[in-house]
Amino acid sequence: MCSNNSGCGTNEDLIPEEEKLEIKADKLCPRCNTNNGEVVLRLKDIYCKACLLQYLNHKFRAALGKSKMMRPQDKVLVAFSGSHSSMALLHLLQEGMQLSSHKRILFSVCAIYIDDGSISQVSISERKANNAQIATAMKYFDSYFTCLEQALEPDNMKLYTDVAELPLEQFAKDSEINKMFQTVTTLSSRQYLLQTLRQNLLLQAAKKLNCTKIFTAETQTDLATKIIANISLGKGAHVPLDVGFSDDRTGDIITLRPLRDFSSKEVIYYNIFNDLSPVHVPSLATLADPLASLQKAAESFVTDLQTNFPSTVSTVFRTADKLSLDLTSMNVNNTCLLCKAPLDTRADLASSSMGATRFSRYVSNATREQLSHVIISSESPDHASKVTTDVNQTVGSQDIPEKSVNGSEDIPNQIVNGMQYTPNEKVSRTEDNEGPDNLQRSLCYACQYVVKDMTSDKDIGEGILKKCLQEKSLNEMEDQIRDFLL
């Protein structure tokens, strides 16, 4: 037991649940003092139907107005999934386009739906039924449909205006993307990979349709879950891009989150009062255990907070919203080939955690003879340093596995994560742009671990990375030609 007399281990230290307010039959809405209250938000705020809809419409329009990023000539691509939040987003845009002239939304809107049922093992008949409902919900806008498999073919991507034209039979269970997801061993990595591929596919579709903005329907609750999950997955450096109002990681196309100030409860009541029914589309984590993945655990935690302590969820979200990118610790000139965010894997800094991790992994797998003299070249030749290790002082009496990083007893010319380790001679980086080490070096910290989470059949998983590598080479060639012309 605790020797402290402070009440540790008792219920005295627990935060009391916020008192819930119950609406009486004759309780009037305090905003209009006319209609009876129908909804209680944040356990204390009472709204009638009319006041709630007016409040949510104003919040949506204020989010767009305060950003000062929307122009009348903009073309917006809305990512639609059939969920409560995406249904509310489309309806808010539709209502905004029907208002009076001085308040009407002037930018044009089109919507896209990405079918990812193949990796969720959903039958074709069920996918067709879900797609028909999705098409009905999108009927008021120019609608486009595609499959997740198109993410592996960015050059030959096809968008369909009729949902019945989707080639669902073409992408069977043995398709390339299904094989790739089967090689990923954990649900956390599969969910992260799915989210990243969907994001890349949205960017490709926006370029094809000449859209300048992308709207996603992420609510405050969704973003609070994303904050906790992404930090757990190693994407803490990119939190400002992942949860901020705008995400401009690609430069030419900006992703906006106009529902980021909405709670999930507000979105649900908005749909109820407007007779909007969401479309339930099974996903990778449907019916999964709350602890099956980091994302599911974070979702369960935030949902419980939202129920009993709604103000805490807002605190998590607002705290992360104040963070900014630390460009001094990133390689801003290079972006991750998978998620397109700036690389956060610089190892040339004096206090780089990535450099420490790589050195620790090497030391843990090296033999005593290999640890006698180790020379490590960092990401920059200017930071190359000689590290002489006394085995007796470093590892003491602990035994080290008799194998090197790549499973060989010989240390010369061993390359790990783009770093070359050789005793008693100066080390240079590999210039092989086709090897797996180069692919790893071109990924951010979180994406590296997704690739490492794949089984031995990595050639399937590296297919998309090699396509990204080719895209990077083309971009570098374009920059060289542009400089030459200037």
Instruction: Give the overall shape, derived from the CA principal axes.
Output: globular
According to CATH, the fold-level topology of the domain at 69-322 is Rossmann fold
Low-confidence stretches: 375-435
Rg, alpha carbons: 26 Å
In spatial order, strands of the major sheet run 5-4-3-6-8-7
Report on the structure:
By secondary structure, the chain is an alpha/beta fold. The chain has helices at residues 49-67, 84-97, 124-137, 176-183, 187-208, 220-233, 239-243, 264-273, 294-308, 310-321, 353-365, 391-395, 436-441, 445-452, 458-485; strands spanning 39-41, 45-47, 75-80, 108-115, 142-147, 213-215, 246-247, 254-256, 331-335, 342-343, 374-376, 385-387, 414-416, 419-422. Among the domains are: 27-66, no CATH class; 69-322, HUPs (Rossmann fold). It starts with 38 loop residues before the first strand and ends with a helix. Residues 375-435 have low confidence and may be disordered. This is Cytoplasmic tRNA 2-thiolation protein 2. Belongs to the CTU2/NCS2 family. Residues 397-436 are annotated as: Disordered.
Short description:
Its main location: cytoplasm. By secondary structure, the chain is an alpha/beta fold. The chain has helices at 49-67, 84-97, 124-137, 176-183, 187-208, 220-233, 239-243, 264-273, 294-308, 310-321, 353-365, 391-395, 436-441, 445-452, 458-485, and strands at 39-41, 45-47, 75-80, 108-115, 142-147, 213-215, 246-247, 254-256, 331-335, 342-343, 374-376, 385-387, 414-416, 419-422.
